[in-house]
Amino acid sequence: MSIEKRIESLMKKISPQERIGIEEHVDKLIYSVVGFMPACDGVDNPLLISNLAYTLSQKGLNVCVVDFKVFYPNLYQFLDVKPNKKGDGLLKVLRSDKADFRDEINATKYERLYMLNPSPQDLMEEYFDIDFENVERVISTLKNMFDLILIDIPNIPPLELCIGAMKYCHIGFFTSTERIEAANNMMKLLDFASSIGVSTAKFTSVILMNLQELQFDFKVLEDLNFNVAAKLPMVKSALVDSFVGKLYVKDNPLVNKFFITGIDQLADRLINQ
Q1: What residue ranges define each of the domains in the chain, with the CATH number in brackets?
Q2: pTM over cut 0.85
Q3: Are 106 and 66 contacting, i.e. CB atoms less than 8 angstroms apart?
Q4: Residue-by-residue pLDDT tens, the chain, 273 positions
Q5: Which residues are CB-contacts of 102 (< 8 A; sequence separation ≥ 6)?
Q6: Residue 233 in contact with residue 258, Cβ under 8 Å?
Q7: Looking at the DSSP assignment, which residues form a beta bridge with residue 97?
């Protein structure tokens, strides 16, 4: 089916009153909104989220990827989606409860995989007046439209899109690599969120990415009561694929089995939670 026909189908099928997806998966899902927060530099959240979202869609779920990195959106590039025009997409639905989500959600070229993203042309100041109520409304609407929502959350604590996403998602993962400051960064962010009344219990899992077998003491994560949900090695070809809008788990004929296993196990964990 062409992308144009899929978008037409999307307009007809998805509404806040209609659930889509395969019922045997939906019935098992308790937590449908999943957030991913980088704990340090050197983490490729869009690489993780795009490949994970595709894997989940191939398991029969309707998935919406949401890019909350409003100052530097890039998830649309990883999913080979045409960027929104200024003011369209995420900004429009955040600003107005009259906006039709079906007009702002983009269909990707992959079945059952959609995305809601800001325009790279949006000005920073256009997001300064977004509050928790706006974030909650958008997330609640998406919950009624899709089986799973994967949110790329920016690590910018003063931004409501950061703390609001933490507040309203069901499960949260920190993403980290072998950087000494990662554990401290996670604790500082959780302390800040807790200080303003946002529950931090959901952000106790860490996905380790771009691992290069450095002599890093991962025991510090255990000592701070974090659990490691997945370990993904550094794979150069996965990064190269992303430069041209290709998904590593789909388009690369020679895949790293540890990367594939990690993504698949994480997908199964979200389905069978």
Answers
A1: 3-271 (3.40.50.300)
A2: yes
A3: no
A4: 554 555 555 544 444 334 444 444 444 455 899 999 999 999 999 999 999 999 999 999 999 999 999 999 999 999 999 999 999 999 999 999 999 999 999 999 999 999 999 999 999 999 999 999 999 999 999 999 999 999 999 999 999 999 999 999 999 999 999 999 999 999 999 999 999 999 999 999 999 999 998 888 888 998 999 999 999 999 999 999 999 999 999 999 999 999 999 999 999 999 987
A5: 10, 11, 14, 15
A6: yes
A7: none
